[in-house]
């Protein structure tokens, strides 16, 4: 099998409403043939701390927990729609 020359997708971290990238990367490989499928930003302890702080702030703000069941259902429905749109990519 010949190696693919197409560029692989790269995934950044999403922290506090911002896409965050790093120079250090994980290589995500197919275990069956060891081909690189994608790369992902390799976060640090500081990135984890920022993400936890952002999650805590969002929880304290209460938008999700104060949302009506209808608002939550609409959000979940949209998530399903997006997943369905990207199903081929995700599989």
Provide the β-strand percentage band. Answer: 15-25%
Structural class: alpha+beta
Shape: flat
Distance between the termini: 21 Å
- Major sheet: 3 strands, mixed
Gyration radius from CA atoms, angstroms: 18 Å
Oligomer: single chain
> Biggest sheet: strands side by side, in what order?
1-5-4
Topology:
Blueprint: E1 10-11, E2 13-15, E3 18-20, E4 25-29, E5 36-41, H1 45-61, H2 69-85, H3 87-90
Parallel strand pairs: 1-5
Antiparallel strand pairs: 2-3, 4-5
Index terms:
3 helices; alpha+beta; 91 residues; single chain; 42% helix; 3-stranded mixed β-sheet; 5 strands
Explain this structure:
The model has no long low-confidence stretch (mean pLDDT 92). The chain has 91 residues and is α+β, with helices and mostly antiparallel strands. The strands form two sheets. Strands 1-5-4 form a three-stranded mixed β-sheet, with no helix packed on it. Strands 2-3 form a two-stranded antiparallel sheet. It is built from three helices and five strands, in the order βββββααα. The longest helix has 17 residues, at 45-61. It is flat. β2 and β3 (18-20) form a beta hairpin. The protein has helices spanning 45-61, 69-85, 87-90; strands at residues 10-11, 13-15, 18-20, 25-29, 36-41.
Compact overview of the structure:
This protein has 91 residues and is α+β, with helices and mostly antiparallel strands. It is built from three helices and five strands. A three-stranded mixed sheet has the order 1-5-4, with no helix packed on it.
